[in-house]
Amino acid sequence: MNQKIYHLAFEDDTLQDHIIAIHSSIEAYQIAFFLNQRLAANFKRVDDIAFQDTPASFLMYEWENPLLDVTTTLFSNKAIHEQSPSKINNSTLFELPLRNEVSLFPKFKQVDFFIKSQDLHTIDMLLKPLNTWKSTSMVYKMPEEKIKNRLNLIFD
Question: Could you tell me which residue, 106 or 11, shows the higher pLDDT?
Answer without folding.
Answer: 106
